[in-house]
Model the fold of this input.
Amino acid sequence: MRHALIALGIGLSVLGSTVVAGPAQAASVLVVPLAPTVPTAQQVASFWLADGAANLKNATPYAVQAVVTGERLSTDIVPDGLPFSIPPVEGAVSPEATSGKVFFIGSDLQPHWCTGTSVQSKYRNLVATAGHCLLDVEAPAGALAKWVFVPDYSEGATPFGLYVGKQGLVHYDFDDIRDYDRDLAFVTVYNGVFLSSPDVLTDTGKLAENVGGQGVTFNQPLAPTVDVFGYPAGPNPDSSQPYTGESLERSTGSTFTMKVTGLPADRPIGVDSPFTGEGSLGSSWLTQYTDDTRTGYLNGITISVSDTDGDNRYDTGVSPYFDRELLTVYQKAANLWTGTIRSVV
Done:
């Protein structure tokens, strides 16, 4: 169903010291402006928050490239660089808080959402999601419009504020040749805001200082198991619909290499997961996750799902392998400052 839009306006030093750094690698990272100025960001925030957050409530799960035909393999992944890890932000509130929904306007000019995750960075302002939840792959003309992140989102509520994306970063090959081995995006966000009155945006602070941030790791052997956190919402091929997308879901499964058709990717990886595709795009794959700390290390991101055993139910999440090329994207994104867009102190 198409909904009417409510159109209202108003040096983390260690990041660059390990493995990959330098002009050649920096040139492989594309920086995409989202809301580069404070007035633009204020208009984006107001668009989503006005009229009781009507545009947030009317958004539907993103269905672009949500399903792929896949086959599980028994081959190993050979890392192409030295291992690299950054630990989580200490004191993460919960996976419900570090996870959330990213909202944007699609090619159909309607509001949609994917899953996103707060991750560690120098300025505590970084969100990870699928690359095609940032770039519009249906109409290749840049980024999806009015991009925001709402951690712990539920039915229009923004318990930790709404965070407007300032700039998104992807590997150049994802934008240039649609290489889905590079379907990973990091987005820097301004401080969170909420509407304290119809025309006043009040600052809630930096994202990871409010909700925490998961660690990240690259160039690793396949983990025996990972925990997947996301907001699946779509149906299975047999029309069953086990998820609503209204609350964060968790699945735990083993990982493996894959071969996929219909999606340009040379070495995707998979995880045993029953998540359906719509809504779960951008779901985080966390290694070393513990319930005590409520943190782990991001080492995969759902870019599609697959029914690999032919029973008409999805059983596999698909991610790019986090290699040294994707590490360059994280390293650049993790050192970019954003700031506040509040309209009052």
About this structure: Confidence is low (pLDDT under 50) at residues 1-24. The radius of gyration is 18 Å. Helices lie at 23-26, 38-58, 95-98, 172-177, 207-211, 324-333. The chain has one domain: 17-333.
